[in-house]
User: What shape does this take?
Amino acid sequence: MANTAQARKRARQSQKRRAHNTSLRSAFRTAIKQVRKAIAGGDKAAAQAALDSSRSTIDSIARKGTVHVNAAARYKSRLQAAIKGLA
Assistant: This one.
């Protein structure tokens, strides 16, 4: 346990940040799952619409640093390639 006032404050701050980052990471994963579900459905238009709506969420979370910018770009790229691969 933290002994000094400064260490106690830092512990409080890190708890708060952890909770916030966890919720952002959850939203990130949910956005990706929605697109993957649409791709699994086989409807190209619906999958593209799902990716378009998820793209802003993914970019926002990457901008905040919860997920690395390159990782977010990789996810978007692979989802777009999967959509392009649909007949």
